[in-house]
Amino acid sequence: MLKYVIQRVVLMLVTLFIITGMCFILIRMLPPATVSPEDPHAEIVELRREALGYNKPLLVQFGIFLKSVFTKWDWGVSDKLYVGRDVFQMLYQKMPATVLVNLYSILISIPIGIILGIIAALKKNTWIDHTISTLTMVVISVPSFVYAFVIQYLFSYKLGWFPFLMKAGTDYFSWEMFVSMIPAIMSLSFGVIAGFTRTTRAELTEVLTSEFMLLARTKGLTKAQATVRHAFRNCMVVVLPSIFGSFIGVMSGSLIIEKIFSIPGVGQLYINSINAPDYPMFIMNTFFYTSIGLAASIVVDLSYGFIDPRIRMGSKK
Question: What's this model's pTM, rounded to 2 decimal places?
Fold first, then answer.
């Protein structure tokens, strides 16, 4: 198991290095954003660009960039969106809004999705199962931004229950702020609920028809006892890693949803860095999103072995 963990971590770092390097070189092949001479930070930006070797070969620029990151944790300064400000600090400031909206969404979606999946599995081939399965496929097929527009129309425009956009400010734990987050939370929740419903239903249906369930019944357990003691436990071997991966992914946010509801998070920051264009900010966000995605995949893979001792990743017979 330890050998497998080391291999995965090394592979993750290599993948992260390659992706970051490719994005860095492709971005630096484009001309940098122009800075107005009247901007008070224009001189700082030009000095930073000179220090980072903007006039040197691309591989030399990448080497200077890596040296700054590893020795001083210096990712550069924004040269368009927030001129002269450290891009890592900007990412850090935008993180709370993204994490809270996604965390609320996951905390609400996971129990609902698992409960609906359990109901569908226990009522297999009934109208309840068919209804839940059909709705699940419809919800998964529809992009989250479609729900965002529907929610804004129904709950914000027609009913007036919630504001169209997230409240400005940093009082993230106030009631007014939470109410303003609800439309975005709802938009993100539909897909998560449908995903966990489908996974739970598929796994529990398979477990309920397994031979060990028949053996449990022959030993005197009722259907309810066998389901609770054995079926749910085996079903969670697949469901729990998905939950762990979802929690790791809360920091990545949703690019489109954050833009629609004006959430001041890393997703909107990423889109703005592309539109600006702000290359230091883009590289920082690319590295961040890639790291989150790779870390989530490793956590999901490793959690299988910890949840079920019978599973040993990377072992040879």
Answer: 0.76
